[in-house]
């Protein structure tokens, strides 16, 4: 029995379909409103539905899987080259349909509701951290204009703010002092919100066995572990740890011609947030670890600091994939033997 493949272009209200009827070979296109999508696919036999991995894609993927269809999510950058005419919903749906049938195509793993929820917490925390950093930097700059210098570090700097404001009471107008005190209170409020989100992630960590196993890896804390589990979706979507590291942009870019291939800097593709967490974790291991593996010592002797940090982050990513894909627990001796 031949299976029909659909190309579905997602939108907020109007969805575009493109498919070829396997019995007749007839090319068909159809526009569906939001409330018609599930009703249409409920009447079709089990099919392959391809979509771009964009906003709401995982939601629709879960709904269609529940109806018995196979869903394939494609990174938008792979679809773009197949839009050969002017861009439109119909052209996008046809490009998705053509892309999904290319051999060797990689697909994005469908995330569960819990994984998407954890990623939402990470995105909210990341934005709050950026807002807090902006507020602190502005407060530092404003106080510096009047001769008040704050020590480096968020905790030390904010601890000196009340004293700096007290010294400027006779210099600044009362309304300016009130505004600065309000900004300090705003920073403290942002810190409380960030701590609340971190407490929620810690609570999820206690319920998820995979997160607990990942936190045994040196340099992997609750933020990195929860983000890795939520971002990966299904570890089986990657054939190896190297593919997972490449997905995070922790492998070199290639440039080759005439039979000569040159390795460049890391590609920085994929999820930049998880890549940043891994690099920060690797930097912490190199800075604070008292005992290093022979592999790490040898690499540090012949490579620059940043190169060693990225290499260790790459190894951490491969280890994360191995633990998730094979259900293993971290064994320091086993990892050292591979190194």
Description:
The structure is a single chain. The protein is of the alpha/beta class. It has three domains: 5-100, YqgF/RNase H-like domain (Nucleotidyltransferase, domain 5, 2-Layer Sandwich); 113-207; 210-338, no CATH class. The chain is 56% helix and 12% strand. The protein has helices at residues 37-42, 57-66, 76-79, 89-100, 113-144, 154-159, 161-167, 174-207, 209-214, 222-232, 241-247, 272-288, 294-302, 305-326, 332-338, and strands spanning 5-9, 14-20, 27-33, 48-52, 70-74, 252-257, 260-266. The strands form two sheets. A five-stranded mixed β-sheet has the order 3-2-1-4-5. Strands 6-7 form a two-stranded antiparallel sheet. A hairpin with a 2-residue loop joins β6 (252-257) and β7. α8 packs across α10 (222-232) and α12 (272-288) crosses α14. The radius of gyration is 25 Å and the shape is globular. Residues 7-145 form the Transposase IS110-like N-terminal domain. This is IS110 family transposase.
């Amino acid at each position: 029995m031949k299976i029909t493949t659909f190309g579905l272009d997602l939108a907020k209200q109007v969805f575009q379909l493109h498919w070829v009827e396997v019995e007749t070979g007839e090319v068909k296109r159809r526009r569906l409103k939001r409330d018609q999508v599930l009703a249409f696919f409920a009447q079709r036999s089990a099919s392959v539905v391809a979509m771009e991995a964009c906003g709401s894609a995982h939601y629709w993927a879960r709904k269609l899987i529940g109806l018995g269809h196979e869903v394939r999510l494609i990174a938008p950058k792979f679809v773009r080259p197949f839009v050969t005419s002017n861009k439109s919903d119909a052209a996008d749906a046809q490009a998705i349909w053509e892309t999904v049938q290319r051999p060797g195509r990689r697909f994005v793993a469908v995330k569960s509701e819990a994984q998407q929820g954890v990623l939402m917490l990470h995105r909210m925390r990341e934005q709050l951290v950026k807002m807090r950093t902006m507020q602190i930097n502005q407060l530092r700059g404003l106080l510096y204009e009047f001769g008040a210098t704050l020590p480096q570090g968020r905790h030390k700097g904010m601890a000196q703010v009340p004293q700096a404001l007290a010294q400027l009471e006779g210099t600044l107008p009362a309304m300016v002092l009130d505004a600065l005190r309000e900004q300090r209170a705003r920073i403290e409020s942002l810190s409380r919100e960030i701590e609340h989100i971190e407490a929620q992630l810690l609570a999820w960590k206690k319920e998820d066995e995979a997160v607990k196993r990942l936190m045994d890896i040196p340099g992997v804390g609750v933020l990195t572990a929860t983000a890795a589990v939520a971002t990966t979706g299904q570890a089986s979507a990657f054939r190896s740890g190297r593919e997972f590291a490449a997905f995070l942009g922790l492998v070199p870019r290639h440039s080759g011609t005439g039979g000569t291939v040159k390795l460049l800097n890391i590609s920085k593709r994929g999820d930049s947030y998880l890549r940043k967490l891994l690099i920060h974790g690797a930097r912490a291991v190199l800075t604070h670890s008292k005992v290093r593996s022979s592999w790490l010592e040898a690499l540090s002797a012949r490579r620059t600091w940043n190169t060693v940090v990225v290499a260790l982050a790459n190894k951490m990513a491969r280890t994360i994939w191995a633990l998730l894909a094979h259900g293993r627990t971290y064994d320091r001796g086993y990892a050292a033997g591979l190194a």
